[in-house]
Amino acid sequence: MSLYEVFVRPRRGLSHTHVGSLHAEDAASALRYARDLYTRREEGVSIWVVPAAALTASSPDERDAFFDPAADKVYRHPTFYEVPDGAPGI
Amino acid sequence: MTALAIADDALIAAQRLLAWVSRAPTMEEDVALANIALDQLGVARALLSSLGDEDELAFHREAHEFRNCLLVELPDDPGGSVWGDFGVLTAKLLFLAAYQKMLYDRLADSEPGALGAVAAKARKESAYHLDHATQWTLRLGDGTAESHGRMQDAVDALWPYTHELTGLIERADWLAIVEPVLAKATLARPADGWQPTGGRVGRHTEHLSYLLAEMQSTHRAHPGATW
């Protein structure tokens, strides 16, 4: 039995979102178990299962180095532009 | 083949499956079996309600008044182990789901009214039950020597009871689904021999009485009770 991470797309047009994990014999059974465990109340229209071992994750120890430097760089936010009147979709 | 027989197949199958809740090999399989059991219960409730009072029909009939096939009432372990045998469960589900899938397909296309409507919904559920049972049959049959042996024992023990799974569907059509699965799972297709029947006219094995005693006891002890 290996660990799989489960991603479900709630409906067309949205991205797959991580919903949890499960144990399964292989990828095919993981997909079926995911259907039973995570979509039994109409939560989704598509499922991905990924072996947990295949994921490379950032470590909590690296959090400061990874994420803090972004905190004071306001110029990365698109807030320094004048949005022209009548520009749609912004 | 009456709606009552179809409803009773589903009801008794649900009761047997629900006995596996908390006893399946893994938590994931536990939920999967509970889902299948609830699908069966849903069909049973819809059909029994269309025939009369569902509680009356489920809880106040005696064994000889039930019209389910013998296959669904058999314990999951013919040897009598308290915990059941997963191979027997898998073989029963494979045989039943193949039959129910074809039956519901037929009814959905031909029956107007409640029966056709229930079948139209249940055919998708049965397709999934068949898939689930097929996956496990392949995994166990083509697995270790231990799992292959127990799966073959289960198929051999249950095979005679599959002769009763006819009526609206032809056995040849049922075999066309089941035989390739057995072959792929490296399981031997048993020879046809003894062909027990009787469930459809109310002649059941002794196992049904014990099952009903458990299923009906609470309702009979507390008539009219609600949550």
TrEMBL record, chain A:
InterPro entries registered for this protein in UniProt: PaaB (IPR009359), PaaB_sf (IPR038693)
Superkingdom of origin organism: Bacteria
Pfam families membership: PaaB (PF06243)
Matching NCBIfam families: PA_CoA_Oxy2
Stated name of the protein: 1,2-phenylacetyl-CoA epoxidase subunit B
Automatic annotation (TrEMBL), chain B:
UniProt cross-references to Pfam families, sorted A to Z: PaaA_PaaC
Name of the protein: Phenylacetate-CoA oxygenase subunit PaaC
Domain of life: Bacteria
